[in-house]
Write a structure and sequence with these properties.
By secondary structure, the protein is an alpha/beta fold. It has helices spanning about 15-30, 50-60, 80-100, 115-120, 135-160, 175-180, 195-215, 230-235, 250-260, 280-290, 295-300, 315-335, and strands at about 5, 35-40, 65, 70-75, 110-115, 165-170, 215-220, 240-245, 265-270, 305-310. The chain has one domain: TIM Barrel (Alpha-Beta Barrel). It is built from 12 helices and 10 strands. α1 (about 15-30) runs parallel beside α3 and α10 packs across α12.
Length: about 325
């Protein structure tokens, strides 16, 4: 059965906006067999609510603080700085709201966490420049993230005991740049060295395996060109989330292989801005894509899911709601 879902982020700048996002997600997706509810994110509330801050709030084995240029690791003293404590507290507040509003939910739930390579390309090490520049530091970060994911899944299971499936989505928008040596250094005059696929796969596998061992289904999301679908699946990801507009010929073939192997492919086809098309237009696009790849919609079944092309933080609240409505409607129609 094809399902509709969201990538994660919603518009807003205040806690009431988070409450509204949660109401929209649960209202549009939770009651439907074709909907996959998820833990929404409202990054407009500040750095502690953004993808990086939210994930660092989960990581208890490493300490971090917020600098003018972004997040920086400070060590492993066990005494997190005030900004990391705030990120941790805000996430706990959001999960409290989820637990209250989703009490009795008996369907699947997805949560989102920044992946190890996007964190390494974003967070600074204590002595400057990104963690990506330090082989040991990026390994330590990935291993700490694996522990954090284990704890996060356990927390969600406690809060949502009726959930039939927990999905952990690792957000890796920077991974293609990491593999291509395209991440700028702190000076801006150079690029960090290429991370070779075996090392990239190993670090991802630590986190993916932690999610699986905790009883969750691991997915990886990347809304950038050049998504290494084969590498993601080789690291153990059982689902990949993609922007259909950014797939090249190799990406189309790799997505088809994933579906044929029984893994999940989440197609980002719903626009995140501008006037949304009719659901019929999007349904025809998805069916045409399946036809071009020689895939039967009935045989693909639950391996296919539909989502907006990326996050909805830049959309209006009305458009964000409409995007989820469309994702669910398209999924329902594709399922026949």
């Amino acid at each position: 059965m094809t399902r509709g879902t969201g990538v994660g982020s919603f518009p807003g700048t205040a806690q009431r906006d988070y409450d509204e996002a949660l109401a929209i997600v649960l209202g549009e997706l939770a009651p439907s067999a074709h909907g996959l509810a998820f833990v929404p994110e409202v990054p407009g509330r500040g750095a502690t609510a953004g993808m990086t801050g939210r994930t660092l709030g989960l990581v208890t084995e490493l300490d971090a603080d917020l600098q003018p240029d972004g997040w920086r690791l400070t060590g492993t003293s066990g005494a997190p700085a005030v900004d990391q404590r705030r990120a941790r507290s805000l996430l706990a507040q959001d999960l409290d709201a989820l637990e209250e509003r989703a009490a009795g939910h008996a369907g699947p739930v997805k949560t989102q966490v920044a992946g190890p390579w996007t964190l390494a390309a974003t967070v600074e090490r204590p002595r400057g420049d990104k963690l990506l520049a330090d082989h040991g530091a990026r390994r330590e970060l990935a291993q700490a993230l694996a522990v954090a994911v284990t704890d996060h899944v356990a927390d969600l299971r406690r809060r949502l005991p009726g959930a039939t499936e927990l999905i952990v989505q690792l957000d890796e928008p920077a991974l293609p740049a990491v593999l291509a040596g395209g991440v700028p250094t702190a000076s801006g005059f150079g690029k960090h060295r290429t991370v070779h696929p075996p090392e990239a796969s190993e670090a991802l596998a630590w986190v993916v395996d932690a999610a699986s061992a905790a009883g969750a289904t691991p997915w990886v999301h990347c809304c950038a060109p050049g998504v290494p679908i084969g590498l993601l699946r080789g690291a153990g990801a059982r689902g990949v989330m993609l922007d259909l507009d950014l797939l090249d010929a190799e990406g189309h073939d790799a997505a088809a292989e994933a579906l044929e192997a029984g893994d999940t492919v989440v197609l980002g086809v719903v626009p995140t801005s501008g006037r949304p098309p009719a659901d019929k237009v999007l349904v025809e696009r998805v069916l045409r894509w399946l036809d071009l790849l020689g895939l039967d919609p009935e045989k693909v079944g639950g391996g296919l899911a539909i989502s907006p092309s990326c996050g909805l933080a830049g959309a209006s609240p009305t458009d964000a709601r409409r995007a989820l409505e469309l994702a669910r409607a398209v999924a329902t129609s594709v399922s026949g």
